[in-house]
């Protein structure tokens, strides 16, 4: 907690207080500072800043089931 307050006073993180909780967000200057302190190469980036690629296409497999062949419990054919 005190480390984050120290980084906040140096403007390396931004602090938000809401509903009795503190939220800290790292700034770009804070990333550069930590990279220097921790001796990290410039290629290392926080995972929240890297673009996530989907593991499969968004609509893959959407058309594989024919209409009316569902396996669910919903209302449909055969319910008298």
What spatial order of strands do you see in the largest sheet? Answer: 1-2
- How many strands? 2
The SSE string, one letter per element, is HEEH
- Structural class assignment: alpha+beta
Poorly predicted ranges: none
Query: Radius of gyration, Cα only, in angstroms?
Result: 24 Å
Largest sheet: 2 strands, antiparallel
Helix content: 10-25%
Shape: elongated
Individual helix count: 2
The residue-averaged pLDDT reads 75
- What is the first-to-last residue Cα distance? 63 Å
Which band does the percent of strand residues land in? 15-25%
Strand and helix layout:
Elements: H1 2-9, E1 13-18, E2 21-26, H2 28-37
Antiparallel strand pairs: 1-2
Would you kindly provide a written description of the structure presented here, covering whatever features stand out?
There is one protein chain. The chain is α+β, with helices and mostly antiparallel strands and 80 residues long. The protein contains 2 helices and 2 strands. It has helices spanning 2-9, 28-37; strands spanning 13-18, 21-26. A two-stranded antiparallel sheet has the order 1-2. The longest helix has 10 residues, at 28-37. It is elongated, with a radius of gyration of 24 Å. The protein starts with a helix and ends in a 43-residue tail after the last helix.
């Amino acid at each position: 907690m005190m480390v984050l307050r120290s980084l906040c006073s140096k403007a390396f993180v931004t602090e938000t207080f809401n509903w009795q909780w503190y939220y800290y967000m790292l700034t770009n200057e804070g990333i550069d500072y930590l990279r220097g302190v921790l001796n990290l190469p410039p290629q290392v980036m926080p995972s929240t800043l890297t673009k996530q690629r989907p593991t499969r296409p968004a609509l893959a497999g959407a058309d594989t089931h024919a209409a009316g062949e569902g396996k669910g419990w919903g209302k449909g054919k055969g319910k008298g």
